[in-house]
Amino acid sequence: MDRKLKEMLFFSAFRGCALLVVLSLVVLMWYIATGGLERLSWDFLTEMPRRANTEGGILPAIVGTFYLMLIVLAVSVPIGVMSAIYLVEYEQSSWMGRVFKLAVYNLAGVPSIVYGLLGLGIFVAFLGFGFSLMSAGLTLSIMTLPLMISAAREAIAAVPQSVREASLALGATKWQTIWHHVLPYALPGIFTGIILSVSRAAGETAPLMLTGVAMSLQRLPDGFFDSFMALPYHIFYMATQSSNLLATRPIQYATALVLLLLVLGMNLVAIVMRKRYRDRYKW
Amino acid sequence: MTPRTTFNHELEELNKEITEMANVAKTAIERAVQMIADMDLSLREEVREMDRRLYELNERIDKHCLDIIALHSPVAGDLRLISACLKMVEDLNRFGRYAWDIAQIVDDFEEGKAFKKFESLRTMACLVVGLVDDAVYSFLQRDAEKASHLHERDDAVDALYDSIFREILTYMMEDPHKITMGIDLILVARYMERVADHACNIGEYVYHMVTGERLDPKARVGNVPQNVEACDRLFDHPCPRTELDEK
Amino acid sequence: MTPRTTFNHELEELNKEITEMANVAKTAIERAVQMIADMDLSLREEVREMDRRLYELNERIDKHCLDIIALHSPVAGDLRLISACLKMVEDLNRFGRYAWDIAQIVDDFEEGKAFKKFESLRTMACLVVGLVDDAVYSFLQRDAEKASHLHERDDAVDALYDSIFREILTYMMEDPHKITMGIDLILVARYMERVADHACNIGEYVYHMVTGERLDPKARVGNVPQNVEACDRLFDHPCPRTELDEK
Amino acid sequence: MTTTIHTEDLNVYFERNHALIDVTMDIQNNQVTAVIGPSGCGKSTFIRCINRMNDLIPGCVVKGKVLVDGEDVNDDKVDVVDVRRRIGMVFQKPNPFPKSIYENVAYAPRLHGVTEVVDGKVRRRKHTKKELDEIVERSLRRAALWEEVKDRLDKSGMSLSGGQQQRLCIARTLSIDPEIILFDEPCSALDPIATSKIEDLLVDLKKDYTVIIVTHSMQQAARISDRTAFFYLGKMIEMGDTKQIFERPQMELTEQYITGRMG
Amino acid sequence: MTTTIHTEDLNVYFERNHALIDVTMDIQNNQVTAVIGPSGCGKSTFIRCINRMNDLIPGCVVKGKVLVDGEDVNDDKVDVVDVRRRIGMVFQKPNPFPKSIYENVAYAPRLHGVTEVVDGKVRRRKHTKKELDEIVERSLRRAALWEEVKDRLDKSGMSLSGGQQQRLCIARTLSIDPEIILFDEPCSALDPIATSKIEDLLVDLKKDYTVIIVTHSMQQAARISDRTAFFYLGKMIEMGDTKQIFERPQMELTEQYITGRMG
Amino acid sequence: MAYRLRWKGSNRRRVRRNVNLSPKERAIEIALTIATWSSVVALGAVFAELMLGAIPAFLTIDIIGFFTGTVWNPAHPTHPLYGILPLFVGTLMVSFGAAAIAIPIGLGCSIWLAELASPRIRSIFKPAIEILAGIPSVIFGFFALVILSEWISIVFDPVTKLNALNGAIMLAVMMIPIMVTVAEDAMNSVPSSLREASLALGATRWETLRHVVLPAALSGIVAAIVLAFGRAVGETMTVLMATGNAPQLTFDFLRSVQTMTAAIAIDFGEVVFGSEHYHVLFAVGLVLFVITFAINFLADWVVRRYKEDY
Ligand SMILES: Nc1ncnc2c1ncn2[C@@H]1O[C@H](COP(=O)(O)OP(=O)(O)OP(=O)(O)O)[C@@H](O)[C@H]1O
Ligand SMILES: Nc1ncnc2c1ncn2[C@@H]1O[C@H](COP(=O)(O)OP(=O)(O)OP(=O)(O)O)[C@@H](O)[C@H]1O
Ligand SMILES: [Mg+2]
Ligand SMILES: [Mg+2]
Ligand SMILES: O=P([O-])([O-])[O-]
């Protein structure tokens, strides 16, 4: 019967697609992993780069990325979560909601390089932070803010209205309701959003290029207004600009592997958390 | 669109059955009274047949009412209708019994014409047939007003029964040979009195069915002129309201 | 835990009421018969009181049954119980009426001891009280077996009535002065026959209530030895089964 | 065209859970058969066996026979798609497709096309527009919905009220002219007024179809069904005429359940 | 401690939608009052006026008086939080907090603390552990749930069955010892057996509380309530003793609705 | 990244407020309002800054030439040419190329995942794909630069090793996880009751998928495509490293191209603050911003226009 045949043909094609996707990603990871493991060592992680990055480790890059994550965590998270709470629980005039929706929805899709321009214009030039950790960190913070807000907002809005009503009907005040019920139940979702945002910031390169990431430093940044190195930029730099591209390939691979592990690890945590959260609260 | 087709259908069925039963019961009483009036013994078998039919209908409607209650959980007006039916059938069934009892007694009479002499018995028969007729009518027409006035006429019947009883007693004392017949007459009167009683019961049920209120028992106390004038008409047209049957 | 507390509670209430009514009805009949047996006219007021009480209970239980149907949509056994109650109350009420009727007649007697002479009337009274007793018992005990046998005894009562009727007739023919009393006696017999009839009705309801089946009308045809031997016991102990009342 | 159903020693397992135990029963045609019982007793599982919807549940094993007109639907040789075409199903929550009302009803006929015999050869062709229009109108009329929607057949099925949606689902099922229609708690998401419309429709449908309905509401079973089956803990406890079940059930359990004394 | 409620010319508007029109009614204490009516007639809106849950709905305007023990809860001077503490509410879908059973019940008492008068001064303090334990046990007992959960108070409230969850919600409401308890279709998500347990509980609760219940099921209203109010299109059509409403309603509309002839 | 920017219940109206707020409650509300406004300001700054940066450029250079010029040579010491067309075409080539590869494969994969894969496989596959969506772009760029380009040069023997095809393929691999997660979500959120309804009418699984699930999920699928496309347009590092960075106007996939993002990233390395070049780069950024803005709007419009309520 042709109806059956059609079904079979299409379904095989879909299986083929899936296989292709798996294959391509496995290949990618395989190359990075095998290439990177060659050079990866404890020393590589804990030493300063030497001789124009051709030797030594990548400690400043790791630390720089870590600092960036810290700034994002400190700036974007509280503002993002608070905004999300306000938007879900308090906001009541329709125009403000619309403006917000517009801003957040569209700014999430704006290319990261554009945020780089912003950072350059405002933090580096206008506010005079110069090419520093602070400029880069704040830029990344603003870049991840839409992601943060919408993640937190979704998590908060996913707490069913019935829980709020239950709490209010017991004579709890609005804030008590939010604090005792909405936030705790939304927390895993918010955390997921936080981790995703921070890991996105960790892997982002383009804005850093405009806000002062350094090609090579023999030291750790000694403050938030110092210049810094970062893992993704280090990969880019070593792969395209450094003096001896071929000789430093192992370093490039290893750095890529480190970044990959860092970001994937964080994402994994986020996803496991979300899954557990979903299992835990089945409304 | 009124929903609940099945339920409405069942209620219609029930209504048809009870209408049939009411008409049969009424006719049975009328035939029995006709037998007294005209000594028309040919009606005997007919009355018996109707008695049987009433018994059957009693069973059937009873079961039907229970079905409806069990399956459709009627409330309000529907429930009152069904409860009225449940009770009414017993009374209607009794009509049949009494009609048959009367028919049997009339049948036994040696001196058929005896009844004719008892004007008051005739009057009573008139009253009772009128009562039954009105009871059935009030049910079919859902006429609470009419139903509420049956009691008053029943009181008239009761009074009449008392006087008939005394009359026949005197009559028997005068001529002991009439004792058998006298007793028969008394029983007939007694039966008719019972019929009137049951007709009143029907009135009570109808009243409750239509209004949702119980008929105030105190209303029974009041005494009302006895409407006997319709009597002759009744005897000439035994089923004056058969046009209702189609309802 | 059996749920539906309210419903169960209502059913219990209903059961209590109907038990009370059954006992009052039974007692009323017993007292009436006692009046015949012992010419104990002092019981008259008591019977009247019971008649009144029965009338009240009739209204009340009726209403209660409707409440339960309207509010709780009973099915199966519960529904059968309620339908049985709905019908039974009418019969029990009749018991009261007849008891009162009997009481009134007995009261009228000039020659009170007349009854004593009529052994068969006494026998009949025995039978009837036994029937009523058993009808009530079968209801209280949900005893379908017992309920199904009431008919047979009713046939005995009917037969007895016929013979009493003839007997009294002869008696009246012999002595025309006894006519009034004769008629009274016949009416008493008649009333008792009716009571037996109603007791049978109760039996039918109980049978249906317990088994869910209708009592086969053909079972009525069968004739069964008349259990008259319990009679004397009855007259000595008018309420032989009062221990059930607590149930 | 109507059909009898006969199940024999039907057993259903979900992994370790024995959800249906030795159900043997007969369902007559042109009747409404109601299936009642407490939650989780296997009512849904039972009717989903009849059109093999349980196939969709991973880990569900069905043993025993379900004979529809003498043919075992569980047989490997039987075409599931065809079984489902012959045995329609209406679900608990109204689930119209998010398409227009017309498309909802025309969907299945379009899929199946018309099977004709031309010159002795069996041929499948598409419906003409006119044929489809007719099918849609007929089905909607049959589902007592035509009058309410005839002026807006191109509106989304989702724009209807709950009760209308459910009738649309019924019309959709009728469009392929099934022999049997299964209803799984079709009114539990509806209010009393919508419910009573659906009930009327069900009673009307039995003239032409064999109808099986699972319901939580005993009153509903009482109101509309001719026969009632009572399930408890995966077993069929009692089956009989609805009147008999509700007036004098044979089993103690049934009486307990219908009088609300279970639990 | 119980309370009477009296509403006067209560009107509720949702934007342009006039959802409740001139509702004037009296609710007596220690009774179960049922509110019935077709879908969308304003039943929920009505009871949500009593504990001001409508405040949560954007665009909802409430006019008229709701006097609880003579005090207008709609008054601006009245503390909403306090109103809600005194008037408990149980919702359609069981909505326990995803906390342990114990925490679910202990939540509200913890919030409110104990108000004591020490040395002539009003003082608020926290409950001691023992007091809390007592409250939890008492509330759960009152909700007929204690026996079923006493061994697993630390398990999540979500792990209970639907009927148990609903009773947990009731226990939670009882924990603050409200004067009035409002139920908005508390059984519509439950099966008949669970429903009948809740109904029993409701009847039991009226000994100590004033109970108002919105229900879709007329049978339920009939079974458990003392008085019944019938709403239609935002108006209160009739209110009276449940027996009277179900045996001889005064209004034609009421009769149509309860006999299922509406629509 | 599985979070789609979806907003529920947006049309809010005034609710009745509690007049008797405790001081604590009031303070909290104020704090939250401040936080919210600061994020509004921060986000508004993005647009404002772009405008401010770009305006001087539009004042000094030929606007028409900017949009129609075919040569991009801003670094020329005397006659810098600011024709954005080569960059624009480069961007479109790479992203459309990527879309052409990613859409069919991604769609097939998401259908497989949503409809055919067994629950166990799905429960592993879905998170895996989500994790991959988080791989930093620089790593894809690195892979394209080092490995993929080698393979392409073996197969096609192109003019330059780093070319548009290289970028397109790599971008496609990047797009697929984003697409799959969002599209699979959309298909998954089609209630199974619709599937059951169709199957119960005697439809096959393919027919059910084709006529019921896909139409119902259409808005989500289109949104997935548009979203992924938007990411491709805005992607910087991958194209920067993969396409060879030659700002030439070409339609040959085997030649090097430069995208707008890459141009900004590269050129900022050497521009002087406040120079004309500096402001032109802001102008390019503004164009990019407008394009992605438009794409997002499109996605939003599609979702709303074809959204099915079930
Ligand atoms: N998909 C499934 N996977 C595992 N077990 C299932 C599944 N569906 C049903 N069951 C189990 O099978 C038994 C019967 O379920 P079924 O859905 O048939 O009950 P039901 O009578 O329809 O109940 P309800 O009235 O709640 O719909 C239950 O014990 C249930 O837990
Ligand atoms: N949040 C809301 N916004 C706008 N209108 C509403 C809202 N809530 C209810 N309404 C409207 O108010 C009217 C009454 O609604 P309400 O929820 O009180 O009805 P109900 O009787 O509880 O119905 P149901 O039985 O379906 O719960 C309806 O017409 C409804 O459309
Ligand atoms: Mg089910
Ligand atoms: Mg409501
Ligand atoms: O039915 P009755 O014997 O009382 O007329």
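Chain C has a mean pLDDT of 78.
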